[in-house]
Amino acid sequence: MGLLSIQDIDYRYGSQIIYQEASLKVEDNWKVGLIGPNGSGKTTLFRLITGQDKPEAGEIGLPTKTHIGYFDQKVGEMHGCGVVEQAVRCSGRVAELRGLLEKLEHDMGDPDQFDDLDKLMARYSGLQNEFQTLGGYDLEPRAREILGGLGFSEARMNQQVEVLSGGWKMRVSLAGILLQSPEILLLDEPTNHLDLESIIWLENFIRDYRGMVIMTCHDHEFMNRVVDRIVEIDEGRLRLFPGDYDFYLAQREMEDSQRMAAFERQEKQIGREMKFINAFRSKARQASMVQSRIRALGKMDKLEPPRSRKQRLHFRIPPTKRSGNDIFVGEGVEKIYGDNIVLMGVDWHVRRQERWAVMGVNGAGKTTLLKIVKGDIEADGGRAKLGASLQFGYFAQHSTEMLHPEETVINTMLGEFPGESIGSIRKCLACFGFDSGDLDKATSWLSGGEKSRLVLARMLYKPPNLLVLDEPTNHLDVESRQALIDALKSYDGTILFVSHDRHFLDAVATHVIELQQGEAEVFHGGYHAYVERSGHQAPGAPIR
Description:
Layout lengths: L2 E11 L2 E12 L3 E5 L6 H9 L6 E5 L6 E4 L11 H7 L3 H16 L8 H17 L5 H11 L4 H4 L8 H15 L3 E5 L7 H12 L4 E5 L3 H7 L2 E6 L2 E6 L2 H36 L6 H13 L26 E12 L2 E12 L3 E5 L6 H9 L6 E6 L5 E4 L13 H8 L5 H10 L16 H13 L5 E5 L7 H13 L3 E5 L3 H7 L2 E6 L2 E6 L1 H9 L1 E3 L2 E2 L2
Helix pairs in contact: 2-5, 2-7, 3-4, 5-7, 10-11
């Protein structure tokens, strides 16, 4: 296909400089991870590549007739058809060709257009060749295959698209983009709203994809397994690093260390020179030497310290009130809804300070089991006993929706803890990445990641001794995810959690319980031991 060439582009958003003389060349079949802090211009770069925006200077070069597929998490209107048909409708040019061919077939059978039959047949032949080249005649089977990989059961595929939740509609949209098979695939956070099984399927799909892929992603492990290059947006420039995300981090750390060492050496040299100048400035006999050193300092090429990065987040969790040693004892736990046996004979013993990852495919009973532990629902059979002196903290994917949209960040915390000092609340919020300029923002103005951090701050200000976390890393960027991992490692309570983030699973879990077809299997030793013993990274997803 050739390459994507970005040459000396400038772009501003209002008074903010997003890109300044930025250049980059990307070859065919490269798998590129695009990284940079919020507001650095990742989405802007995608819009520039697709032509939705134009650079103020410079140019973006693409081979002629290059097909670009862009997944940007904007679902759009979805109604009036089934899931498979909607995925086909999202497939871009091939869906457009299908519609044109259907119209031409109608026109060729219309007696009123008989005089134009030769022209219609010629056009039909040309479009049919393009349709066949793009795999149009296999469109529905491929749509079903991709939808299945993204977690759709046959029953869900046969539903009308309007009954789906926003997260499932997002998967339909992603399926449509993948169905296009474009030469350039641009993916903005493709793992959002996917479970672990679907993430592993997508990982293999992208790794085997014959074409260029550029993506943003907050999933550390996904990036390591998929990308072979990293492009960093660095103060308006584009920097290319070979290798995966871990290699990039090591390179950046080494560069920053070298730059800091050189900066400190120069600062010491300047300090020595200034000490001499100040000591002998008033002495006439040393005047020429003093002036010489002043001139030398003026000509010195001053080094900059390593680029200023936002201070690393540090989530702090205070000590908790001690619970009993037994947190939950389940023996032969059963739960049945109508004809659906969700849990059947589950044995599970959770002890104080253990960290349990609860794993299973969608519908395996993960949420049901956690609700039994919390006491929200009762088991239909067996024994389910909660331990003594338990205080629950629950973070669910919908927790951010419970924030009052017109309430400010600071008042959200003060409303929960009215007797606490503002200074203590501000200090807690600062640990979760909220500076003084964020405190008076209405929660409706916060990003998804900021809302998650606010909910975590509110839950952990006076932490419970049992945390139940359902996908806690959704919407958190890489830095926030690592900060949460570091905090949970020092947390002195017990954790039960569901997560699709393998880096988070490996860092936090000390035990795994896997639910399959109502039954449970326990793995001691954490996620790594689970992978070794089970032979798969997730239920139904074998190691490749």
